[in-house]
Amino acid sequence: MSNKPPGEPPPPAVQRLRLRYTKRGRLRFTSHRDIARVFERALRRAEVPMAYSAGFSPHPKVSWVGAAATGVASEAEYVEISLAVRTDPEQVRVSLDASLPDGIDLLEAVEAEAGTSLPDRVQASRWVIELGSVELADLERAVAAFCAADSVEVERMTKNGRRVFDTRSAVVSMTTAPGDDCAILHMVVQHVTPAVRPDDVLSGLRFVSDLVTPVPPSATRLAQGPLTAEGEVGDPLAPDRTAGATRQAAEAAEHQT
Question: Is the entire prediction scored with pTM above 0.85?
Answer without folding.
Answer: yes
